[in-house]
From TrEMBL:
Gene3D superfamilies: 1.10.287.130, 6.10.340.10, Histidine kinase-like ATPase, C-terminal domain (3.30.565.10). It comes from Acrocarpospora corrugata. InterPro entries: HAMP_dom (IPR003660), HATPase_C_sf (IPR036890), HATPase_dom (IPR003594), His_kinase_dom (IPR005467), HisK_dim/P_dom (IPR003661), HisK_dim/P_sf (IPR036097), TCS_sensor_his_kinase (IPR050428). Coiled coil: none annotated. It is an enzyme of class 2 (transferase). This is histidine kinase.
């Protein structure tokens, strides 16, 4: 939970950042507008006050003839403007930002009369307004961003649920559903699409499983007759060839039946404490293949010995059939590694796992692709993890990790 809260790439924080960005833009636009409007109003009031003061000075000048200000102190730009136009002019003097003035001047009888009005109070009021707007904007952001994150939590939670269900479906739980409900938003549409996909995959897989089981059972009866007939043939090269093909066909049918039982989920492990090294050595001995076995210590595992025997035999046979010698088996603790020195497993198998009737790259040899499929299925039954990889110096590796209760 804490990791999700700190994940800044989460949709929650993306929505909060978007809301914060939009709020900042709105606050900035409103602040600039208010600032400019207040500044214009202050300038207008300053010009009005300066004009009133100038009118009073002009009245005194006409009555007394005394010039109130030295033309030398009048800003040069204002002095030039009024002399050129002969009309009253105003000028905001911000040469000293801390002490601003508003000047008003007008030529009268060859003289230029000028007055200045203090704009310091207006400037201070404007700066106070800017500070208040900044503080108010920060306060609003402090409230809006958490509220946006909380509001984004509901759709974020629904999306995480859809993601969890999708991962369960990818892991083989085709009965998992999102239970999208009756909403009409985009998340509901995604949920409905995931449920539909899972349903279609489930139906397709059930059809494939039924087909495999039906084919295996239908082949069983004629196969028994074929085996009996092959045994009755007189000895000879042709008869031995027929018997060899019949044995291959029998193995194929038995594998198909085994796969159909694994697909149906009817298999249950019979767990007991077994000496792992002895089980592995006995299994390899029954295959009749040359394998270099290394057992570290005297490991004991709580597992199903019969299914372990089938897993090891299938892995060793696969290594001899599709790889190159030497084939090595290492037993360390509850981990068993089977390795050959051939071209390695194809990329498709490493990415998707073993698939029935798919043998991968041509250089891996020929076969029906059932041995690894059965080994993976039996590993699931006994609660083990079977993974596939390629060694850095060449060769395929199959690693069986027994998970202890």
């Amino acid at each position: 939970m804490g990791r999700r809260l700190l994940n800044w790439r989460s949709l929650r924080w993306q929505i909060a950042a978007l809301v914060a960005g939009a709020s900042v833009v709105v606050a900035l636009a409103v602040g600039i507008l208010v600032h400019q409007s207040t500044l214009d109003r202050s300038m207008s009031l300053g010009r009005g006050q300066a004009s009133v003061a100038l009118a009073s000075v002009m009245a005194d000048y006409r009555r007394t003839g005394v010039v109130p200000a030295d033309p030398a102190v009048i800003p040069a730009a204002l002095l030039q403007e009024v002399r050129n136009t002969g009309l009253e002019g105003t000028w905001y003097d911000d040469r000293r930002p801390d002490i601003p003035w508003m000047w008003a001047a007008q030529p009268v009888g060859g003289e230029v009369l000028a007055v200045q009005v203090d704009m310091g109070s207006e400037l201070r009021n404007l700066r106070a307004l800017d500070r208040h707007m900044v503080m108010a904007s920060l306060g609003v952001l402090g409230v809006v961003v958490p509220l946006a994150a909380l509001a984004a939590e509901l759709p974020n939670r629904r999306l995480r649920r859809v993601a969890r269900i999708a991962r369960r479906i990818a892991d083989g739980d085709l009965g998992a559903r999102t239970s999208a409900g009756g909403g009409g938003d985009e998340i509901t549409e995604i949920s409905v699409a995931v449920d539909s996909m899972a349903g279609a995959l489930h139906e397709r897989l059930l059809g494939e499983q039924r087909f495999t089981a039906d084919v295996a059972h239908e082949l069983r009866t004629p196969l028994m007759g074929l085996i009996t007939s092959a045994e009755l043939l007189p000895d000879g090269e042709a008869a031995e060839l027929v018997r060899d093909r019949v044995r291959v066909l029998r193995t194929l049918v038995e594998n198909l039946l085994e796969i159909s039982r694994l697909d149906a989920g009817a298999e249950e492990a019979e767990l007991s404490s077994v000496p792992l090294g002895e089980v592995v050595e006995d299994s390899i001995r029954r295959t009749g293949l040359q394998v270099r076995v290394t057992v570290s210590g005297e490991p004991v595992a709580y597992t199903d010995a019969r299914r372990m025997d089938q897993i090891i035999a299938n892995l060793v046979v696969n290594a001899h059939r599709h790889g190159r010698p030497p084939v090595e088996v290492r037993v360390a603790g509850t981990t068993i590694v089977v390795r050959d020195h051939g071209p390695g497993f194809p990329d498709e198998l490493l990415a998707e796992g073993p698939q029935r009737f798919r043998t991968g790259a041509a250089e891996r040899g020929h076969g029906h692709g059932l041995g690894l499929t059965i080994a993976a299925g039996q590993a699931r039954v006994i609660g083990a993890v079977l993974s596939f990889g390629n060694a850095p110096d060449g060769g395929a590796t199959a690693t069986l990790r027994l998970i202890q209760p």
